[in-house]
Amino acid sequence: MDLTKEEQSILDGEFGEGAQKAIELIVALGKIYGADGLVDITSAHLSGASYKTIGDGGLLYLEDMVNGGAKVTVPSTLNPVGMDRKRWNEMHIKDDFAEKQIRIIDLYGKMGIQTTCSCTPYDGVNVPKLGDHVAWAESSALSYVNSFIGARTNREGGPGALAAAILGKTANYGLHLKENRAPTVVIDADIPDTLFSHSLLGQAVGSVIGGGIPYYRGIKPGMEEGKTMAAAMAAAGAVAMFHVEGVTPEWKDFDVSELEVVHIGKKELDDAYDKLNTADDVQLIAIGCPHLTEKEMHEIASLLKGKKKRRTDVEIWFCTSERVRSKCPEDVRIMEEFGPVLADTCMVVSPIEGTFSRTATNSCKAGNYLPTLCSQKVMCKDIAELLKVVE
Ligand code: F3S
């Protein structure tokens, strides 16, 4: 790998231990993946923020980083944590968990990271531009910015994204290079134009192709459909980028005429649905994976307006960012007749397994992770269908 004089000095420790550790990790990754050098990044988004997922080992690691003087050098945001930091007592969170979670958030803050704690930072908080190199963790978010914005990031893990944020650079390989952003398969999609169908589409495609870069025909997704597809494809497979004909910014840049075409229609969506649904009744309905946008908040509020929640044995959580929650007070008022509108957190990274064993969601990403990370049986349906459970 070619390093500049300054990068070599950082590697030699002349800029302190924090920067040295960061560049050691980035260079090691670059060597594994055949990078020719480093590239400047304009932002980072970090995962590994919930006490449930990183535990005491992660907390100690972050303390070491802060004690060593680590600071990020580019705008950086943080993924959801294990609880709403103001309303955690409504989520059955224990005092010990809450205390450690607040410490983790504070440690990230001390490193200069915006502790927004959302998986949709591209929705008004951390918004890259076309062609920007960035280092993002959170599989749904990085796929969204690669695909819908045309920013360039690999599928970073938490430590890699943090090292890049400290250094302001990442290794130049994979999706940072235009030639690696070419589609690998054409998806001929024939699906209903609903949000949930787009989530099932992402689930079906992730399951069928595993990795690679799909090029979609037959759909016109907006932000909401795009983010749920990105999330499901990354969870069911390992897809970090996709193109949509006539929609995403790089769709015209490649010749797809020789690629294999895979048809995804009703049968594939039904198969995906059947695999995800393992519960007939539920104790928790959790909506907002990835975090709800303002448009989704309005739609849910108008679905709920004038209705009553009849079942008291089922809780409902709505998950969004603090920014969106604060912008929609009237929607929040209507939704909270049914259940709390939570910020900073979600059903997967919160320790729900201590309270619930059967959870419903409208997100195929959550449908993948709730059984494995939260020991839940799952109901995965359209929001309107889910709300019928409690009406
Ligand atoms: Fe976001 Fe949690 Fe889903 S981090 S993408 S709401 S699993």
Structural write-up:
This protein is of the alpha/beta class. It has 3 domains: 5-177, Aconitase, domain 3; 182-274, no CATH class; 277-388, Aconitase, domain 3 (2-Layer Sandwich). The protein has helices spanning 5-11, 17-33, 51-67, 95-110, 139-149, 158-167, 195-209, 223-236, 266-276, 294-304, 322-327, 329-335, 364-374, 383-388; strands spanning 38-40, 44-46, 76-78, 135-136, 169-171, 185-189, 214-217, 243-244, 261-264, 284-292, 315-320, 341-343, 358-361, 377-380. The strands form 4 sheets. It has a 5-stranded parallel sheet with strand order 12-11-10-13-14, sandwiched between helices. Strand 6 (185-189), helix 7 and strand 7 form a beta-alpha-beta unit. Helix 2 crosses helix 6, helix 5 (139-149) packs across helix 8 and helix 7 (195-209) packs across helix 9 (266-276). It is globular and about 65 Å long. The mean pLDDT is 97. The structure holds FE3-S4 cluster. The site of FE3-S4 cluster has 15 residues, from strand 10 and helix 13.
Low-confidence stretches: none
Number of helices, counting only DSSP H or I runs of 4 residues or more: 14
The CATH architecture of the largest domain is 2-Layer Sandwich
The residue fraction in helices comes out at 40-55%
CATH class of the largest domain: Alpha Beta
- CATH homologous superfamily descriptor of the largest domain: Aconitase, domain 3
Shape annotation: globular
Q: How would you classify the quaternary structure?
A: single chain
How much of the sequence is in beta strands?
A: 5-15%
The H/E string reads HHEEHEHEHHEEHEHEEHEHEHHEEHEH
The main β sheet shows up as:
5 strands, parallel
**CATH topology annotation of the largest domain:** Aconitase, domain 3
Record field, number of beta strands: 14
Measure the end-to-end span.
Answer: 61 Å
Mean pLDDT: 97
Rg (C-alpha, Å) = 21 Å
Instruction: Provide the domain count.
Output: 3
Q: Which small compounds were modeled alongside the protein?
A: FE3-S4 cluster
Read across the widest sheet, the strand sequence of neighbours is 12-11-10-13-14
Helix-strand makeup class? alpha/beta
